[in-house]
Amino acid sequence: MQRTSIAQGLSFTRPARILGEQQTDREPSITGFEGNYFVAWKEAGSTGNILFSDLGKQYDTNAAANVIRITGSASSFAPLLQPFHNRLYLFWINPKGRIQYLVRTKEQGFDPTAIHEVLFTDPVKVSLGIDGAELGEQLVLSTHADNKETLLYALFRVDANGLLQATAPYKIPQERSRNYPHVTAINNNIARFCWQGKNDQLFFADYDASQNSWSEAKPKGNSQTQVSPVVHQVYNSDQLFYIWRGYKKDNRLYYKMGAGFASPRGHTELPPYFTTDLPVSVCKVDANNFLMAY
């Protein structure tokens, strides 16, 4: 997908099917790593194993690619592909509410038999989904507790082998949602979180890791959704791209661009051939382009 200019907004190519007949009932995850593009998803069904594929550099074609199924990776929720410190991580939530993952480097691909588990110093079960961002020397993950309303986040450092060190999970203070939040890094210290909040509006707030502090949560205009809205940094700038599914029976996609804490009303509708009941996944291609999978 390609932007035209900040003033004009974005232009979008028509969607292309990825990997032929592969299907899922949760949102996929797509990302770039070392010049290639990777996609991961769960098998359709109440509980399914996680699958992934290296699409190579040809992300805009229907070229066949190998699909790898991770035996023993059963999950009811979407996975997450997340680059961090010259490694690529594949996360998912297992039936016990624990986060498991694989690690890939440039030299060594994912080993589907080498499944690791995120260690929390305060035991907690998570659910609904995961998002992440590289925040300087730390990896931030956002997720949801195994209840109706609690938003969670955690900051991780890795050891020499790239394994995540144990850390404490924290609640996003005073905020509630029926869905998990999405997150993007604004710089090496500040992460912006976005979620479906009160009255089904889009809310956002910034976490400053250097100060261990939160900004006040604010609604992003007057738009509403019943799924997790996605936030993504574009243009190598302070411009942020918010994208979400429409409200109630409206399954079209909408977006808004903005910087800082400006929160004007209104939004822009994507072309009518973009429809989904789930969150989307966005990854950077270069300074002018990004991919969206749904």
How would you describe this structure to a colleague?
0% of the residues lie in helices and 49% in strands. It is an all-beta fold and 294 residues long. The strands form seven sheets. Strands 15, 16, 17, 18 and 19 form a five-stranded antiparallel beta sheet that branches. A four-stranded antiparallel beta sheet has the order 3-4-5-6, with no helix packed on it. A four-stranded antiparallel beta sheet has the order 7-8-9-10, with no helix packed on it. A hairpin with a 4-residue loop joins strand 12 (138-145) and strand 13. 37% of the residues are buried.
Question: Any descriptors?
Answer:
294 residues; mainly beta; 5-stranded antiparallel beta sheet; 4-stranded antiparallel beta sheet; 49% strand; globular; disordered N terminus
